[in-house]
Amino acid sequence: MRIDKKTKDNLITYGIVVATFLIVQALASTGHLTNHIKGLLVPMTYYAIIAVALNLCVGILGELSIGHCGFMCIGAFTSAAFSKITAEKIPSGPRFLIAFVIGIAFAALFGFLIGIPVLRLKGDYLAIVTLAFGEIIKNVINAFYIGIDSKGMHFSMENQMALGLEPDGLMVVNGAMGITGTPHDASFTIGIVMLLVSLVVVLNLINSRDGRAIMAIRDNYIAAEASGINVTRYKMLAFTISAAIAGAAGVLYSHNITTLTASSQYFGYNASIMILVYVVLGGIGNIRGSVVAACILYLLPELLRGLNKYRMLIYSIVLIVMMIVNWSPKVIEWRKKTFANFGIKKKV
Amino acid sequence: MKKFSKAVSALMASVMAASMLAGCTDAASTETPDTQAQAQGTESSANGGATFKIGAIGPLTGAAAVYGNAVCNAAELAVEEINEAGGINGYQVEYSKEDDELNAEKSVNAYNTLKDWGMQILVGSTTSACSIAVSENTKADNMFQLTPSGSAEECVKYDNVFRVCFSDPNQGIASAQYIADHNLATKVGIIYDNSDVYSNGIYQKFKEEAAGKNFEIVSEEAFTADNATDFSVQLQKAKDAGADLVFLPIYYQAASLILTQANTMGYSPVFFGVDGMDGILSVENFDTKLAEGVMLLTPFAADAKDDLTVNFVKKYQEKYGEVPNQFAADAYDAVYIIKQALEAKSATPDMSTSDICEAVKAAMTEIEASGLTSAKMTWDASGEPNKEPKAVVIKEGAYVSAE
Predict the structure, then answer these.
(1) Which one of A81, B109, B219, B382 has the lowest number of neighbouring Cβ atoms within 10 Å?
(2) Given the DSSP bridges, would you call strands B51-58 and B92-99 parallel, antiparallel or unpaired?
(3) DSSP per residue over B193-238, as a string?
(4) Partner A contacted by B173 (CB < 8 A)
(5) Whole-structure pTM over 0.90, yes or no?
(6) Could you read off the pLDDT of A57-103 as tens digits, one per residue?
(7) Which of B17, B103, B133 comes nearest A20 by C-beta?
């Protein structure tokens, strides 16, 4: 059987994810995993997913977005609100599936709506506008009060009392307090499945006709337009898919932690930049690299817990060292020379 | 280049796998040096080395580090005192703390780390959202959780979780009642932080409780954490509405700015705060004269003259070089409450975590604790403490009882 280079490359990516999953499952079933590591597995998958989403936007579409956590926020809130309302009415399996559909659909919708004005811009301007939209999403959600009782849905942007909820009513979104008590549906298996799905979507998109058009826009906007590519359409396509995948990460997030607040440390621009760090360190345009970098960089500060306050310092140093080792031309040259001697055997 | 990036990604993948494996084997031995030292120190105890293991979680780094460090330091101090005095039921106590960076996700990770260490009872988390997230896990593991300062209503929704501090709603209700009972005002203005769970919680209940009381709420102005520097608009509205008391259910940093700006515009109502206001006298570059006459409901004042407080403040200052705040007092009480509950049921460290939880849970509703934050605290099964709020007023740069 002959498979071309790209397919082989993609298969390696899926293989790494599946192999990691199998190794972890084997370790877990033989009792070799500590509670700490078990707790880190699900967050690792959703950070990998959002890194893949952002890499589609930054690496393939070539537009810098620093508001991607805003889409994650939308996915998280819409799906968590749904799950909370239907917690007792629908069994957990189908409920979580519908929650995924809702979270992804809303994130995609907002990705589309925000894409309309944003994608008219380029480069730095686009980055700053995405930053602003990320903040707007977060702040608007912070002002929402939504409750539900026998009379139906109540909505206010003022405060909890303005809802006039019946005493037995259910407070769904409580302003800055967000959503508490979302059912704990996410698991490592579901996380890995979602990661594989998003990898399949993104890698197939890249290798498709649409993907080549998107990359043509990235490489030379004017040439792409001149050769008849509908620039707006392909930009919107990539941006919306990217937002939808970020929404899926949000769904996993909100169903893993039972408190969901739209505050800066989870969905602000700092969080968005952290994802961007995963993407840049993993390699812009290198989807597999994003997954690996997201896993390592999420695990690192956690595994360094024993070092207490120094772990933040070490984390920053590791970031700098990784950046230099991966991307400095001099180091790349040196490594090429060193590996050239026994490179043939070393190469996979 | 292609070859190379492939080699790198293969390398990275193996690093990832290796780091995960390393994580598995390491975690058992990643105890911090001081816990190991403690473990060695306690091996000589009378009971063949069995110890109670108490863990604490709080934001030790980042913007809220003041609160997390206060909780973790005070809990450490209490554990040391208990060990010196012979331990709990004759068993020594081991203590470990973990950082959560004010992040619910990290708080759960911190909890799992402590669980690997062998924690039997949790003092934490320090903040509300983190505490709620962790309570989901303690419930699943049936581990006893006593949060010193998680004040949101949902913190204690499970039966294995209790708290030391007042809940946000209780503070709102108590404030409204206090203002009404003491005829402090006829027109009340409120300035609150609507991006903060704590501030919102108090504000909402205060407003509900104020309906039908002998004062009227004339202005309700919000700010968010992102624009907590200029309050002239909010103050002007309160002034124009003729508010003779301004209720500030916020933390002290913002409150100090409000007091300064009110002074600049020549507006001097009575300012009434809640426990987050504690600490206002230690704000740098803040003229404490401006805080003259400010009233606050707080469970703890560092310059109270009773023996327990004097002793605690002295020891805390010696060890950590700062004056403890109410978070520290809550955590200190929390450890002693756990001690009292364990002693009430004669619990031993060789019991399973779940059995200890059941024993302490039962004991909590029976004991009557006395500590820094109240002379008499009792709990019902809901996990809420019953204690009297103390009102203090700032006079000549010090907290004085308002009664």
Answers:
(1) B382
(2) parallel
(3) ETT-HHHHHHHHHHHHHHTTSSSEEEEEEEE-GGGTT--HHHHHHH
(4) no
(5) no
(6) 999 999 999 989 999 999 999 999 999 999 888 898 899 999 999 99
(7) B17
